[in-house]
Amino acid sequence: MVGQFIPTDYLRPKLINKDISLNDYYTRAISIVGAVATIIATMVALFKEDIKRIYEKASLNINFKDKDKLSEVLDLDSEGESSSSNLTAKKYEVRLLIVNSGRLAARGCQIYLERILFTAQGSTLPKEYEPSGNPLVWQGKSELAIVVPSKGRASVTVFEILSPQSTTVASDSSVQPTTLNPQIKISGAEFSSPVFHGLYEFFYSIYSENSGPVEFAMKIRWDGKWHQRMPEMKGGISIT
Description:
The chain is an alpha+beta fold. It has helices at 8-11, 22-46, 48-55, 230-233, and strands at residues 60-64, 70-74, 89-100, 106-120, 127-129, 146-148, 153-162, 183-186, 189-190, 198-208, 211-222, 237-239. It has one domain: Immunoglobulin-like. The chain has 4 helices and 12 strands. The longest helix has 25 residues, at 22-46.
C-alpha cells in the first residue's frame, strides 16, 4: 500500500548495456591497484615491527665445536715438554658450539643442563642425576648471559675427563697415582659415582630473549679407561 505513494521507479537504478572502452578499463584497473597498494601500505605501517620479527630474528644452532667431538688438552708443564713425543694429555673434553645464523643478535643467551642419565656397564636401568640448575659458564666469558651477534658464535665445555695424576693422591704412600680413577666433570661440576664406565646421556637447552628455546641431546659411551694420548683414548669412547 505504501508503494502506491512512493515513486519506487525513480529509485531503481538504470542499467545500460554498454561496452567498456580500453581507457575506462585502464582507469579502473589503476584505481584498484592504487586501493590495494594503499591497504598494503597501511598494514605495513601498523604491523611493521611484527613483520620484521618474522624475517629479522636470532636463530641459534647447537653442534659440537671440534670435528672429532673429543678434544685433547696436553700437559705442557710436565717433564719432557721439549719433546712432543713425551707429552701426555692432562684431560679430554667435549665442547658445544652455539652459532647464531639469524639476522639479529641473540640477547641474554644462557645454556642449561636439564637432565643427566647414566647407565653403568652391564646394566639396563639408567640412573638419573640432578643437575645443579645453574646456567653453564661460557668459554672466555665472565657473565652467564651473553650476547651472540648475528653470524657470531660461542662455545661451552660440557664434559671433561681429567688425568688420574690430576686428582688428589691419598696420604697413604702405598697408593700410586696410576691406581686412581680419572676425574669426571660434567658442565663444570664433579660427577660423583663409584662407577665411571657406561653410557652417559645429557639433555641441554639454550634460551635467549629474542629467540625460541633450542634443545640438544648428547650421548657418551666410555669404557672407563684412561689413555695418555688421543689415538688410544678414542678407541674406548664414542660420542653421538
